[in-house]
């Protein structure tokens, strides 16, 4: 979970800065940028969930 927080803390401010600096170009790319960020964060959260679940499952059987 800590890894996801690190990725979010780097990714979102960077995207915000890009939106401010290149606002004319971003209006064309914004849906793709937001979609990519959501897919990345969602994937990382899903991987983290399954890792934690398998860790807990193996720990309960011991």
How would you characterize this protein structure?
The chain is mostly helical and 62 residues long. It has one domain. 95% of the residues lie in helices and 0% in strands. The chain has 2 helices and no strands. Helix 1 (2-21) packs antiparallel against helix 2. It is elongated.
Distance between the termini: 24 Å
Q: Note the overall shape.
A: elongated
| Series of H and E elements | HH
- Unreliably modeled segments: none
What is the CA-based Rg, rounded?
A: 16 Å
- Main sheet specs: none
Strand content of the residues, in percent? under 5%
What is the helical fraction, as a range of percent?
over 70%
Give the class from helix and strand content and strand pairing: mainly alpha
For the record, the count of structural domains works out to: 1
Note the total helix count: 2
- Mean pLDDT figure: 85
